[in-house]
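Let's inspect one such protein example.
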Amino acid sequence: MGGGSAIMSSVAHSKGADEVRQIAVNQNEASIVTTSDEILILLAALREADQELQDWEFETRTGVERREFAAVARSLRDVHVAMVGE
């Protein structure tokens, strides 16, 4: 992907400074280290938005079409399954 070199940084996790996360960022993408529990939180939020937003308001409120939104949710589910084997 184009657009600049990767910038590596470490941030302290919100649960305490004992846990340090690696984040790699460039102009077009970011990679973060996360837990399966955090992925479940994201999936729950995505599911809530998908269920509660009407078709007429969905793209305005989320900034993406519902099919793109569903693809992101599928990708996160696939990652979670790969992590926990379910």
The first strand starts at residue 7 and ends at 12. The chain has a mean pLDDT of 83.
